[in-house]
Automatic annotation (TrEMBL):
Residues 255-275 are annotated as: Disordered. Gene3D superfamilies: 3.30.450.40, Hypothetical protein af1432. It comes from Cupriavidus malaysiensis. The lineage of its organism: Bacteria, Pseudomonadati, Pseudomonadota, Betaproteobacteria, Burkholderiales. It holds the Pfam family HDOD. This is HDOD domain-containing protein.
C-alpha cells in the first residue's frame, strides 16, 4: 500500500485477495460521509478513488492486527480483558476522529492499536511473566512498563520502538505511538502530536471504562481535552457512551472480529446478474467522462466481475510492437501471478479467442471440457485453466477493430446460460471504455494497452 509505483489494478488485486478487507473497504466507501462522492460504491476500484490509498492501507493493517490477537485470545483466557481494552480504545478513537476524514480516522485507529501493541505482545506471548509483572506493579507500586523491564529486561517503550523498526511503519505512525503525557497547556503543533494525543486519550478512556467507571463520570476529562483535540464536547461524550456499550457487548458476546481470508470461490452467476450489470453501467457512466482510460479499465473489469459473480477475470490488449495479445491486468485467484503467461499471437488461429476477436462478438462457453469446445481452446489456456467449466470472452472494439478482450470465468462452477439482455449490457460496458480510449487518442492508430492502462 505504500509502494508509490504500484498501479491501480495492482492495489485492487491486493484488496480483492482478502474477502474481509474487500467488504470493509466497500462498506467504508458507502458510508454516509462519502455520499457526496456518488454513493452506491460496489467495486474496490471505485472505493480506492473515493477513500484514497492511505485510508485503505491503515484499514488493512488494523484488520490484520485484530485478527491475529483475537485468534490468540480464544486460547488465553487472561488475555481477553486486555484485548477488550484495546478494542474499546480503538472504537473510541474512530468515533471521535471519523469527521476528520477516512485517512485520519483509520490512522488514529492504527496508532491506538499500535500504542498498546507492546503490552499485547507481552500478555499474549509471555502469559506467566505478565502475571508476575502485574503482581510486581500492584505490590511495589511500579508502573507496568518499569515492572516489565525488571521481569523481562526490556521496557514496554523499548519493545514498541523495536516493533515499529522491524515492521518498517510509516514515520508518522511510529512517532505518534511513543508514550507522552496529555498536557492541554501545550498546543498540538503537528499532525503526529495530534495522533499521539488521540491514541493516549483513547487508551485512558478504555482503561477507566474497564475499571467500571461510568462514561458520565469521565466527562470532566473528556471536556478538558475536547477543544484541545478539535473535537466537539457532545461527540466526546457520545463516543464514550457508545464505547461503554461496546465493552458490554464484548463481555457478553465474546471477542468477534472479522476473520481474514482469501478470495471467496465463485458460487456461480448471481440470480440478479442483470440488475447488477445495470448498476455497474450506472456507476461506470458516472465517472467515465472524468476518469482517464488507464484508471477506467480496471473499474470496468472489476464491475463486470462483480456483476457476473466471476471467480477470475483478466483483460488482454494488443501489443503492436510484439504483435501479440497480452494480459495486462486481472483479478481473482492466482490471476496476478498468471498474467505474464497469458498471451497469444495476433495472427489468426481457429480457437475461441481469435474467433471472438475476428467476429467482434462475445462468446459464452458453457462447458470447456466438452468435445466440440476443447479442440478450440489454445494450449496456453488449457495449461493455466484446465479445471474451468464456463467462461465468457468479451471483445473490445475501437474504430471497427478489436484491440483486446475481457475474459471472465466461474472456476469449477458451471453456468448454464447468459441472456441476451446480459450480453447487451456487457457490450455497453465495453463501449463506455472504448469511448474513453477514443477521447484519449483521437487520431489513429488505436492506443496500445501498454501505454498507461492501469496507471
Amino acid at each position: 500500500m505504500h509502494n508509490e509505483e504500484a498501479n491501480t489494478s495492482q492495489l485492487v488485486s491486493v484488496v480483492l485477495s482478502d474477502f474481509t478487507l474487500t467488504q470493509q473497504v466497500i462498506r467504508l466507501a458507502n458510508s454516509a460521509m462519502y455520499a457526496a462522492f456518488g454513493g452506491n460504491v460496489t467495486t474496490v476500484t471505485r472505493a480506492l478513488s473515493v477513500l484514497g490509498v492511505d485510508a485503505i492501507g491503515h484499514l488493512a493493517l488494523g484488520l490484520q492486527l485484530l485478527e491475529n490477537f483475537s485468534g490468540l485470545a480464544e486460547t488465553r483466557e487472561a488475555a481477553g480483558s486486555e484485548l477488550h481494552r484495546v478494542l474499546v480504545a480503538s472504537e473510541f478513537a474512530r468515533k471521535i476522529t471519523i469527521s476528520k476524514g477516512p485517512k485520519e480516522a483509520e490512522e488514529a485507529v492504527v496508532c491506538t492499536l499500535l500504542r498498546n501493541l507492546a503490552r499485547l505482545l507481552v500478555v499474549f506471548y509471555f502469559p506467566e511473566e505478565w502475571v508476575e509483572i502485574q503482581k510486581l506493579s500492584a505490590t511495589e507500586g511500579m508502573a507496568i512498563s518499569a515492572a516489565c523491564e525488571q521481569v523481562l529486561g526490556v521496557s514496554l517503550e523499548e519493545l514498541g520502538e523495536e516493533v515499529t523498526r522491524r515492521w518498517s511503519l510509516p514515520p508518522a505512525i511510529a512517532q505518534s505511538i511513543q508514550p507522552k503525557p496529555l498536557d492541554v497547556s501545550t498546543p498540538l503543533g503537528t499532525h503526529v502530536a495530534w495522533l499521539n494525543a488521540v491514541a493516549t486519550l483513547s487508551s485512558d478512556v478504555a482503561e477507566q471504562l474497564l475499571e467500571r467507571r461510568e462514561a458520565d463520570s469521565i466527562g470532566e476529562m473528556l471536556t478538558e481535552h475536547a477543544a484541545w483535540l478539535g473535537v466537539e464536547d457532545s461527540l466526546m461524550t457520545d463516543s464514550a457512551l457508545d464505547s461503554a456499550s461496546y465493552l458490554t457487548q464484548l463481555e457478553q458476546e465474546g471477542i468477534s472480529t472479522p476473520t481474514a481470508g482469501g478470495p471467496v470461490p465463485s458460487q456461480g452467476k448471481p440470480a440478479d446478474s442483470e440488475a447488477r450489470l445495470e448498476r455497474s453501467l450506472d456507476e461506470v457512466a458516472t465517472v467515465a467522462l472524468t476518469t482517464p482510460a488507464g484508471a477506467l479499465t480496471p473499474l470496468v473489469l472489476e464491475s463486470w466481475m462483480h456483476a457476473m459473480g466471476f471467480e477470475r477475470c483478466f483483460g488482454m490488449f494488443l501489443n503492436y510492437a510484439t504483435k501479440r495479445y497480452e494480459a495486462k491486468l486481472g483479478f481473482g485467484a492466482d490471476i496476478p501471478a498468471k498474467l505474464s503467461r497469458l498471451s497469444f499471437e495476433q495472427g489468426f488461429f481457429p480457437d475461441v479467442f481469435h474467433l471472438a476477436l475476428t467476429q467482434i462478438a462475445a462468446i459464452f462457453v458453457e462447458d470447456a471440457a466438452s468435445s466440440p469446445i476443447i479442440s478450440r481452446l489454445p494450449e496456453w489456456y488449457v495449461r493455466e485453466f484446465a479445471k474451468t467449466r464456463s467462461f465468457i470472452l468479451l471483445p473490445l472494439q475501437l474504430r471497427n477493430r478489436a484491440i483486446g478482450l475481457f475474459y471472465g470465468d466461474w472456476g469449477q462452477t458451471p453456468c448454464p446460460a447468459v441472456s441476451r439482455q446480459e450480453l447487451s449490457k456487457m457490450y455497453k460496458l465495453g463501449e463506455i471504455l472504448m469511448q474513453s480510449f477514443e477521447r484519449a487518442v483521437p487520431a489513429a492508430p488505436p492506443p496500445a494497452y501498454a501505454q498507461g492502462i492501469g496507471a
